[in-house]
Amino acid sequence: MSRIAARFADLKGRGEKGLVAYIAAGDPSIEASRQIIHALVEAGVDIIELGLPFSDPLADGPVIQAGTQRALLAGANTDNVFDLIATVRREGVTTPILIMTYINLVNRPGIEQFCRRAAEAGVDGLILPDVPMEEGDELLAATQKAGLDLVQFVAPTSTPDRIERAGRLASGFVYVVSLTGVTGQRESLPARMIDLVQAAKAVTETPVAVGFGISTPAHVRQVAAVADAAIVGSAFVRICGEELALPEKVAKLKRFAAELKEATRVEK
């Protein structure tokens, strides 16, 4: 059982849903990210999604694009992000960690080498939004060989056949994109989100998580009512970009994460 699967099994036993927190690795610095990861873990975050910064993040909205740019300007790259993950593992972090990035950065060293290095650093899985399932055979084989989960996407535009295929191929969880467009905070979640989650759950036993547009405890409670986890990104990255001293920033992120995590606890 992978670390991600074990976390979802534990959550189910405790009558909770999961909270996946995204930050751009290296925003505003690698050392800041190290402290933020520890704070998120202490706040009860169930899975940490680290964005490996890339110059052309096509699925990301303006807030995460800005966080990615701050990380790149601070010198974040594949090597020091893997070093960051290895460091927090040595420091005792056992929370599952996913890398979210784009295929260019995976192809650069070679898919097998990237996956092997990721696993050696302590990564549990990959999220690659620009790799359609039809072009993902080599990636799927490499992640399986390295022992990494590979998250698959279901979107509002997905046909029933594609939803079934995503459910069959996904490991770790199925990522339901709640709306068309890019990441970013929204006032409300679309009603179609419930239908998408139900459609995914009808074809797979793999946990289903919902992302894009989720930024408040109320949103998390909406997601927790139907899905296995809520994914929050832009709201965390926005705090990372605030003009605060690092200790204040870390403390604010920890408080916010704890509020969101509380919203995942459902009645047994």
Give the name of the CATH superfamily: Aldolase class I
Q: How much helix, percentage-wise, in residues?
A: 40-55%
**Mean pLDDT metric:** 93
Number of beta-strand segments = 9
* CATH architectural group: Alpha-Beta Barrel
Unreliable residue runs: 181-186
Instruction: Give the count of helical stretches.
Output: 12
For the record, give the distance between the C-alpha atoms at the N and C termini, rounded to a whole number.
24 Å
The CATH topology turns out to be: TIM Barrel
Account of the protein in words:
The protein has 268 residues and is α/β, with parallel strands linked by helices. It has one domain (3-259): Alpha-Beta Barrel (TIM Barrel). Helices cover 48% and strands 13% of the residues. The protein has a 9-stranded parallel β-sheet with strand order 5-4-3-2-1-9-8-7-6. The radius of gyration is 17 Å and the shape is globular. It starts with a helix and ends in a 6-residue tail after the last helix. Residues 181-186 have low confidence and may be disordered.
